[in-house]
Design a protein that fits this description.
Order of helices and strands: HEEEEEHHEEE
CATH topology: Ganglioside M2 Activator Protein, Chain: A
Strand content: over 45%
Radius of gyration: 20 Å
CATH architecture: Distorted Sandwich
Shape: globular
Largest sheet: 5 strands, antiparallel
Low-confidence stretches: 13-22
Amino acid sequence: MLPSNFRILLIFTIVCAEFFGNEAKIIKFTKLECKDYDKSFIQFKQCQLKAVGRNRIALQLHGDLKKNIDEELTINAELFRKSHDFRPFMYNDTMEFCSFVRNPNRYMFWKILVQDMIQFTNINHTCPYENEIIIKDLILEENMFKTLPFPGNDYMVHVKAILQNEIKAELKVYVVLIE
């Protein structure tokens, strides 16, 4: 039989955990797809996920730019959530890439999503971008998404790079959030 003080503390802890939610969330990459439709614009040399520990998956991406990214590049970014298959979920924005990098406040969701990830990329300055786009050892951490209170589920971010009304490249990043 447990002492009464310990039982009260245990009950209080269980009630608080249920009321305030479980802080131990797991968020990790599950799949990555890169397509370079126009190899005269970009070629993906590396597009992979690498397991670095239990529930820790690192994203590695290396795109060799054949043309400089300047004011003409448009990005379409869309969020999907799984419900039997992946369906559009809340956000679908088309934005001028260089304008977004300069001032991301207009697209607050994408700003919040990207702001902690920038340190793992060479996309940490304004346009033009030359030679390469690199994402190295990007591991998702729960604190990156504290201001985005999404429920546990499978999600996909689909990004299309569009130049002169043609899709030049496409990324699909799959993530699981476990509460």
